[in-house]
């Protein structure tokens, strides 16, 4: 990778360093199965009054053959024994294209006030239709109609075009009860089956506690190791 000769003048330079000093993580805190430890940490994030959106994640995917990586903030919606599920438009979105060319994804949770993060990497698989519909039926009416209205990630001429599509679908479903609005075929859940889960606890002087759970496949046992910060 080429390195530029010129030293650039920063637009933003070195904001004041924040010191992590709230907690620690050691071997005595670990679980044999990382899903158990994640569930504990997620429950603690939900109970923390200053963690307003503990289900917020950064979801990353990469397109092949270019290798270009893209990230976006989404909401994590479901955990089962197979993995972590998000819901979205898998017909037109950028991440849909990435997953079609490269069925792997990465998730990052960051709980600022607990000074913790969890990184997850693994294989991507679509959940079945029943699972997608089960979640879709919990969504507010407007969100259901919105799923029908937005050609996600595609270029639109104006906000008016989007509002027109939404108005047309509002009219289309005006006689339908909330639970009668169907889930679009292109919309549903994507599960990341984890092959790596890292638990990170912030510590002073950037000497953080990090433990990495890894396995070769979903049928293999987990191995856990401490890694340097």
From TrEMBL:
Its EC number is 1.4.3.5. It is an enzyme of class 1 (oxidoreductase). SUPFAM superfamilies: FMN-binding split barrel. One of its GO terms (molecular function) is FMN binding. PROSITE patterns: PYRIDOX_OXIDASE (PS01064). The keyword Iron does not apply. It catalyses: pyridoxine 5'-phosphate + O2 = pyridoxal 5'-phosphate + H2O2; pyridoxamine 5'-phosphate + O2 + H2O = pyridoxal 5'-phosphate + H2O2 + NH4(+). GO terms for biological process: pyridoxine biosynthetic process. Keywords: Flavoprotein, FMN, Oxidoreductase, Pyridoxine biosynthesis. Residues 187-229 form the Pyridoxine 5'-phosphate oxidase dimerisation C-terminal domain. Its cofactor is FMN. Coiled coil: none annotated. Residues 54-161 form the Pyridoxamine 5'-phosphate oxidase N-terminal domain. Gene3D superfamilies: Electron Transport, Fmn-binding Protein, Chain A. Pathway: Cofactor metabolism; pyridoxal 5'-phosphate salvage; pyridoxal 5'-phosphate from pyridoxamine 5'-phosphate: step 1/1; Cofactor metabolism; pyridoxal 5'-phosphate salvage; pyridoxal 5'-phosphate from pyridoxine 5'-phosphate: step 1/1. InterPro entries: Pyridox_Oxase (IPR000659), Pyridox_Oxase_CS (IPR019740), Pyridox_Oxase_N (IPR011576), Pyridoxamine_oxidase_dimer_C (IPR019576), Split_barrel_FMN-bd (IPR012349). The keyword Transferase does not apply. It comes from the Eukaryota. Belongs to the pyridoxamine 5'-phosphate oxidase family. Homodimer. Catalyzes the oxidation of either pyridoxine 5'-phosphate (PNP) or pyridoxamine 5'-phosphate (PMP) into pyridoxal 5'-phosphate (PLP). This is pyridoxal 5'-phosphate synthase. The lineage of its organism: Eukaryota, Fungi, Dikarya, Ascomycota, Saccharomycotina.
